[in-house]
Amino acid sequence: SNYSIVVAKEAIPSERYAAEELQLYLERISDAKLPITTDDEKIKEHEIILGDNAHLRKLDLGIDFSKLGDEGFVLRTYKSYLIIAGGKPRGTLYGVYTLLEEKLGVRWFTPEVERVPKRSTIEIQELNETQLPTFEYREVFWTEMLRDANFAARHRLNGNHYNLTEKHGGKAVSFYPFVHSMDLLIPRELYKDHPEYFPMINGKRVDGYVQRCLSNPEVVKLATERVKQWIKEHPEATIIDVSQNDTGYWCQCPNCKALDEAEGSPSASIIKFVNAIAEAIEKEYPNIRIETLAYQYSRKPPKTLKPRHNVIIRLCSIECCFAHPLASCSSEENSHFREDIVAWQPIAPLLYVWDYTTNFAHYLQPFPNFNVLQENVKFFAKHGVKGLFEQGNYSPGGNGEMAPLRAYVLAKLLWNPETNVEQHIKDFMNGYYGKAAEPIYSYLKLLHSQVEEENVHAHIFDPPTAPYLSDEFLEKAEKLFDEAERLAESEEVRLRVQVARLPIWYVKLATNRVTGEARR
Question: What is the pLDDT of residue 250?
Answer without folding.
Answer: 98
